[in-house]
From TrEMBL:
Protein name: Nitrite reductase [NAD(P)H] large subunit
The keyword RNA-binding is annotated on this UniProt entry: no
The protein's enzyme class: oxidoreductase
Coiled coil: none
Organism of derivation: Vibrio variabilis
Keyword Protein biosynthesis listed: no
Pathway terms, separated by semicolons: Nitrogen metabolism; nitrate reduction (assimilation)
Keyword annotations of the record: Heme, Iron, Iron-sulfur, Metal-binding, Oxidoreductase
EC id: 1.7.1.4
GO MF annotation terms: nitrite reductase [NAD(P)H] activity
Domain FAD/NAD(P)-binding: 5-106
Needed cofactors: siroheme
Signal peptide annotation: none
Amino acid sequence: MPVQLDDGAGGLLKDKIEDLGLTVHTSTGTDKICDGETAYHRMVFKDAEPLDVDVVVFSAGIRPQDALARTAGLEIGERGGIVINDNCQTSDDAIYAIGECALWQNRIFGLVAPGYAMARAVADQLMGKVATFEGADMSTKLKLLGVDVASIGDAQMQTLVLKRWCCKIRLKALTRN
Ligand SMILES: Cc1cc2nc3c(=O)[nH]c(=O)nc-3n(C[C@H](O)[C@H](O)[C@H](O)COP(=O)(O)OP(=O)(O)OC[C@H]3O[C@@H](n4cnc5c(N)ncnc54)[C@H](O)[C@@H]3O)c2cc1C
């Protein structure tokens, strides 16, 4: 979750998940998957001991569906996505793109809130108002294996005036007698 969590928060989440009895491997490149000796498959890593596993689940991230725009000859980003300006206009200013297919300032947003903000900006323009898309709140709340995770504001410190505050809160389990 590199968009939502910085290194420190990612480390805290890893600890929480490992407290549940799971082992988390990060920064581990998979070289190949072959037949296992003690389980169905063997994951062979570039830089760590191999791991025998019964099930492999791929989670490969998001890829913008931009085929229609490609066919139409609109400008597409290097790694996909329809290039838009702050008005959400594509390289053809009569055509707008919003949501997960749109590439704004070289960014694809993988959340619904930025799509809604783009939709509002375009709707306002179509109504004759001046409105631009200026980025969106990337705050996220989710539950990961039962662990509550929330990321609020500029988690990656991209706003220059921000100061770093780090606060670890440990909540003790409350029991009723
Ligand atoms: C498993 C999962 C969990 C998620 N959880 C969250 C979450 O908790 N919170 C959150 O904010 N976001 C979440 N997201 C992301 C969120 O779903 C997307 O950011 C959002 O749906 C993007 O909206 P969109 O309208 O841009 O695209 P989509 O919802 O993908 O809609 C695009 C539509 O266009 C259609 N389409 C594509 N090409 C064509 C074509 N040529 N002609 C006609 N139709 C076409 C597609 O079939 C699709 O129906 C999640 C995504 C996934 C996959």
